[in-house]
Amino acid sequence: MVDNVIAVRDIGKAFAGVQALDGITLEIAPGEIHCLAGENGSGKSTLIKVMSGVHAPDTGTIELNGKTFSKLSPIEAISNGVQVIYQDFSVFPNLTVMENLALNAELAAHRTFVSWKRMRAVAEEAIAKINFTIDLDEKVGQLSVAQKQLVAISRALMSDAKLIIMDEPTTALTKREVDALFAIILDLKARGIATLFVSHKLDEVFEISERFTIIRNGKSVITCLPEELDHATFSHHMTGREFDDNHFVPEHVSDEPILETRGLGVNGAFADVDLTLRKGEILGITGLLGSGRTELALSLFGAKPADSGEILINGEAVDVNSVRSAIAHGIGYVPEDRLTEGLFLERSISSNIVISELDSFVSKLGALDQRKADAEGQRWVDELKIATPNPANAVNTLSGGNQQRIVLAKWLATHPKILILNGPTVGVDIGSKHDIHRILRTLASEGLGVIIISDDIPEVIQNCNRVMAMNAGRIVAEIDPRTTTESELAELMSKDPSTVDGKG
Amino acid sequence: MAKLVRKLTKSNEFYLLLVIIAVSIVIQLRSGQFFSANNLVDLANAMVVPGIFAVGAFMVLVAGGIDVSFPALASLSVYATTRVLVDAGYSGGVWLPFLLVIVVGAILGAFNGLFTSRFVVPVLIITLGTASVFSGVMQGVFKSVQIPNLPQGMSDFGRSTLFVATNPESGLTSNMPMAFLILVAVVAVAFVVMRYTTFGRGLYAIGGDESAAARAGFKVRKIKFWLFVIVGIIASLAGLVRTSMMDQMHPTNLLGMELMVIAAVVLGGASITGGTGTLTGTMLGTLLIVIVQNSMILVGIPTFWQGFALGTLILVGTGISAVQLTRSRKRAPALVQG
């Protein structure tokens, strides 16, 4: 039995009376790929901060390199080989790759003057460690997310790391980039470097992890091997709730389509899209990043008007050339990036909800009836179970799942006939994800036509009654989710590499 | 070679230089006076004070803030120094005024630094406040009035010249002031600090991402504090130079220069949001503004068009960099990535 790289025992930490961590124990062996899973607010980030020396725990011990600490300083953590790769990578977008890699070393050596020659040598050595080829003089801000991550990993490896903690490393990566990241993690393992992989994405943690620790409300729930868990028990441990894995079956589907497109196309994005949507249905559209799925959503919503083809609503051809006309035709859109596209983060919850239907709260004199608007905001907060003490609070006080519910509420308040959701549960924890799915199913059974656009394959298979796969700007197949497996659908999305692999 | 060309055409300084050359040629064609020896010396002369100020404004801008207090800070420190020396009947060399103004400038800068490093309030807001405090202290506590006779050392320094340029046609002469050497020295020291010290690289790092800088091990508060001490000294030097060259202390003469100086720095390619920009760009930006201010008379354009021309320059200059930014952002997530 080899000694652990790090072992934290009975860690407790409270902030202003709230117990963030309560008796957490976690051991990581050399070269182990360990997954730390938990919902937002479960204490994952606090635990990382205890392990990296940012927070001092109230109780418990940290064993590192055979020494026992009651608390760590960031310098002690780093000098004992613990490195954290933060979600934002902590890189300087305005500086070159070389400086991003080498500045830490210059600082650690307490230098007053920097030497560009020495920095270049240090940086070259750092990228060579993971066989990462990149122009050292390129500004980091110009790099892709995956490249930034590699810069952060190279930097972490410079100081003889024994454990690399990766905080939600796959959030903004494409599937292929995730695979490349996993290859690097396995390479680190071969060199005896352990990885603590923090994530709540089920399929990924099952693919890479050798051992799991799941925490909930600041307590360790279970530490086990992946074989001992399946998706349902995993979700149960994370949330403490039971979920049924049933497929969505629409109850009342109208005979006539509510929305239809014929040969719809946007130059350079997608072409020849024919689709139909009936009342009561949830239609899934899935495809890889760049397959045209987002552009299709935007053109149905008038934000990126189609160059060819036509859109029919209730059998009549209509001109959806602006967001306003889409709203007038009863189309609602919940965007992919709710932070930049859908919400005014600093404004209150209720004003965010009512913003799309402000017109209906204007009195005859032209003034806004604030009380009526607030009442409407409160109604939706109750209806969608948005966890807030007060609808007058700013939206940025809420968690990701609750923010997504507000975007949903905002569009439901306009009483749409058709609701298009783009990546409805990206960055949302499991519990909220199930809640959002439940809301969508209810909406469909109440007669709404719903389109979910997502690359989350389990999501579309479970929640849609029909799924269309997009590939390189075209609909390549329509499948019945009850008879299609996840891997079959994944294959449809990514096959024919000659067209998909095109560099853009 | 191809790499050098690519690097050049990507740099803001290259285009700024093209604009300066174009403007110079136009003025030369219209007036025939631009490339005369005395006009060039006049331009160098006019660049000294805004140039020194611009170095300080540039350093703050790199760290991600906008300092609007430097003219008021310079006025106060130079006024206090001059008042004390005149009242004491000082008649020695210029070294003492320089020493005093550096000490007072550092203290006033530390006042800025204390607030900006302790409070999470934008530098612009803090320095708007301290600017008022500085000019309030000058006008209230010191009951500032014009001081017509400076200490001998300052007057001598203001009048001392490196060389005299004469226009062979008109016979007009222009003096190259000794103070130009101060500008050269400030730029040289700032260049070394910004490029070759961990402090200077720390300013870029903070301007890029402050929390990442803290995680990397930069002592962010300390760096910010000393930044404002240094900027206080630089601004006070500019103030002393201006006062000496005018040969009188006019308390409100400098006030209002901040926007022109910040415009010059931004025109030189420093981003308002921090983290980017070079001293070369800063000096070129200042030169362009000085050329426009000084030479419109040569072309026979009424002076009231100056403001209009400056405003247009700033809009075009910042507009171009904004367009470049949006373009590079659009390019980043390519449409088909697979």
Name the CATH class of the largest domain in chain A: Alpha Beta
What is the third-level CATH name, the topology of chain B?
ABC transporter involved in vitamin B12 uptake, BtuC
Report mean pLDDT of chain B, rounded to a whole number: 88
The most extensive contact between chains is: A-B, 36 and 28 residues
Strand content of chain A: 15-25%
- CATH architecture descriptor text of the largest domain in chain A: 3-Layer(aba) Sandwich
**Gap between N and C termini of chain B, in Å?**
34 Å
Helix/sheet category of chain B: mainly alpha
The total strand number of chain A stands at 20
Largest sheet of chain A: 6 strands, mixed
How is this structure best described in words?
The complex is a heterodimer of chains A (504) and B (338). In chain A, 34% of the residues lie in helices and 24% in strands. By secondary structure, chain A is α/β, with parallel strands linked by helices. Chain A folds into three domains: 6-239, P-loop containing nucleotide triphosphate hydrolases (Rossmann fold, 3-Layer(aba) Sandwich), CATH 3.40.50.300; 248-330 and 417-425 and 447-504, Rossmann fold (3-Layer(aba) Sandwich); 337-415, no CATH class. In chain A, the strands form four sheets. In chain A, strands 6-7-8-3-9-10 form a six-stranded mixed β-sheet, with helices on both faces. A six-stranded mixed β-sheet of chain A has the order 16-17-18-13-19-20, sandwiched between helices. In chain A, a hairpin with a 2-residue loop joins β4 (59-64) and β5 (67-69). By secondary structure, chain B is mainly alpha-helical. Chain B has helices at 2-10, 12-31, 37-62, 70-87, 95-118, 123-141, 152-159, 180-196, 198-208, 210-216, 220-246, 258-267, 279-299, 305-331; strands at 161-166, 173-177. Chain B has a two-stranded antiparallel sheet with strand order 1-2. The model of chain B is unreliable at 331-338 (pLDDT under 50). Chains A and B meet through α3 of A and α9 and α10 of B.
